[in-house]
Amino acid sequence: MKNLYFILFCIIACQATCLAQSTGRVTGKVNDAEGLPMAGANILILETGTGTATDSAGDFSFTDLRAGRITLKISFVGYADVVENLKIKANSTNEITIKLSIRPIAGDEVVITSSRRPEKITRAPATISVISASDLEESASFNPAELLSKIQGVEFVRTGVNSISINARGFNSAFNTKILQMTDGRNSMLAGANGLPPGMMNTVVKEDIERLEIVLGPNSALYGPNAHNGIFNTITKDPRKYQGTTVALTAGNQQVFSGRFRHATKINEHWAYKVTGEYTTGKDFNFKDSVYAGGGVYGPAVVIPERISSYQFKYIKGEAHLFYNFTPRSYAALTYGRSNSTYLNVTNLTRNYQQDWIFTFLQGRFVTPHLFVQFYQTWADAGKSFGVASYTRDFWNRTHSTITDPANPAFAATGYLAPDQAEEYAMRVGNVFKENSKRLNSEIQYNYDFEHAGLFLIASATYQKDEPDTYGSILVDKVQKVDITQYGAALQLEKTLPGDVKFTAAARIDHHSLFGEMFSPKFGLVKGIGSGAMRLTWGRAFAAPIILFQRASVFGLIFGNGNGVKYIPNGANTNDPAAITKTTPLSPEQINTWELGYKGKVTKKIYVDVNAYYGKSKNFLSPAISVGGRTVSVGDFPIETNTLLFPGTVTNSGILNGAAFSTYFNYGEVSSYGADAGLNYYANSKISIALKYSWFGSDITSENIKNDANKDGYVAVDERSLNAPKNRIMGSISIQDLLHSKVFCNISARWVQQFDMYSGSQIGTREGKGKRGMVYGGKNPINDQPRYYAKNFDWGPIGGFTTFDISAGYKVSELMSLNGSISNAFNTKQIEFVASPSIGRLYSVELKVNVAAKNKKPGSL
């Protein structure tokens, strides 16, 4: 590793000292549609991130530009972006005049995520959508993820006032890691045991987001394992481009209050910085899941509500960024971010109360026109987080135990405790999570444009080392630590062909210290048709099981299957060593997907985005699936019987009955297919209408024995569930620039088809509503008796609702704006995930003050 750092240091030093001396210049003017100069318009060189703003006369300039081709993006809030491609010649000046039109039109956006280079969205070889800064400006919510409900192809999931997650192309679960979340090129998934998306724990504040890019489909070829079903990339505002101070205050029902700020300054020709911060608090919906307690020495078996003392959520977060420009086209940046989060969170087993969970990162980047290098460390501290169900059950059991004599040998483990003592017992390690984990990432990327050959090349190498440390509270790492190393290399070639055709091919190979090598190729053809383009792509992607799936030991119920779980099946003799069975260890899931799509304008007023896909998964990764038996060990790590939640009972002859645990499995093969369609109609410069539809299907619903995940000889319903609606529809009307461009109004509706869902022990079905979840697992081959797997309480099916959202805003002045929004305006019953409350009506108002910085010297970076 030291040698790798030394090589990277030499490359950086060479690039920083050997930049070409021959330079050119660009000057320009930005006007509005009426020819009037626009002060404060942003101009960005996409290849380098260098930016400036126009002065009071609408003028800007860049000096000391290296000879070659550059791409300028000119933008202003509320206006359509303009992209200009220029060829810079040594000792010469390019003079341009730009005219901006009000409001961005779909299809004009420039994106970077799909190909790791700037390109117009209609020419990207992927299904990609964008949420822009202007979209965020019109949202009164503190949570930018709310806007994802309006993106086609995205399965939007809300489990509380503050908790939002996304999925794509079915098979959702509480521990879904098949969409890679990134921020400014950094893997922003949580470090440590779970590796889950950060959600609101992310340190980015809404006012610092330039845009969100959502890419659907397999992308492992460029981004590595777990860019499986897509990428959600957050791109923040560069302080050299977006300067000034923004303060925003949001208030709403459920006691919501959010205060946020962003301040960015360009100090001089070399230095710039920005700082952001947020304090958000509120109260989640009053919902208590059912917990099963009692039995044996604890009295009769009972069903009790979760013991929840507080529904408050709170987020304290912030970032600090420091930029240094070596030249106008090369810079270094150092970023630090930290968040402290408290909220209720749904899992595969129960709900957790994430209390004072701390997410931290430190990132360093070096960027030139051809070279990108970054190192970053991510930390996770679980704080005082705990499992609500296990805490509830232990408190109940110990306060209802029939063993009251301290002299009884069983008293220490199961005897009666007073409430204060029971509280302390229920909050012990095991119910309370303990974690101090970290992850190290590094990346080097090189690109070169063979302009005369019409060929563009990107080569990259990455390294990742995970060092989880849960002290045995989440993983089997109490005795021996679990370290996971991954490294890989990728190459992408992009070739321009005659007839306005672009061919893209990429390949990546990764090595995982547990799962070995993974090879991910991809290719795409994009054919320009008028103002749009047709695309055909094929790609292979991998989803490596997260560390939790590999080494879990949670609540004595869910165990990791990275090296197999040894167990004694129900009906077998516990005294017979030959009865011990081992599950088949996990392998990475592999998916091969074909996609065909078109994105572009079909008339001057109509823009469409349609795509269809077909994917074939091998070693499909299941949610946590129940197994009838008593766990003996996770890999080579023994599990004590007295720590098991369902250890079962043993007859006088040694026969085991009623034992159960859950773990993760690979299916044989699963096909999935679907289509997404979006239509935007621009009636005039003020009114636009959008309609979006998604359909999803899979052969997993068949009772094919290949889908017997836990190998019990029967394909149960939880092994053949889509865990997603087959159909979804969203429509919206947007009215802009009323009353001299001061007022806007948006109205949207969303319909989600009803469906059954299984996520580990959580269950939500039409048939089982109002009862304890029970899944029939066929007959036990040992004793030929019917076999049932117990789940948690069944609150009924998911989806089956139509909701309406309304938002509006008023621009009080150049400095101040006032927005308001209502989500689920008619208070419709809206359940989007198992073991979650119905999301009732939510409303909020936002006051924002934005003070732009004065230009020190246009174009001087």
From TrEMBL:
Keywords tagged on the record: Cell outer membrane, Membrane, Receptor, Signal, TonB box, Transmembrane, Transmembrane beta strand, Transport
PROSITE patterns named among the record's database cross-references: TONB_DEPENDENT_REC_3
UniProt keyword Membrane present: yes
Membrane topology, from the record: Multi-pass membrane protein
Predominant subcellular localization, coarse grouping: membrane
Domain called TonB-dependent receptor plug: residue spans: 122-231
Domain TonB-dependent receptor-like beta-barrel: 328-824
InterPro entries listed in its UniProt record: Beta-barrel_TonB, Beta-barrel_TonB_sf, CarboxyPept-like_regulatory, Plug_dom, Plug_dom_sf, TonB-dep_rcpt-like
Signal peptide: 1-20
Gene3D superfamilies given in the database record: Carboxypeptidase-like, regulatory domain, TonB-dependent receptor, beta-barrel domain, TonB-dependent receptor, plug domain
Lineage: superkingdom: Bacteria
UniProt GO cellular component terms: cell outer membrane
GO molecular function: siderophore uptake transmembrane transporter activity
Family as reported in the entry's similarity comment: Belongs to the TonB-dependent receptor family.
Protein name according to UniProt: TonB-dependent receptor
Locations listed in the record: Cell outer membrane
Species of the source: Dyadobacter psychrotolerans
GO biological process, alphabetically ordered: siderophore transmembrane transport
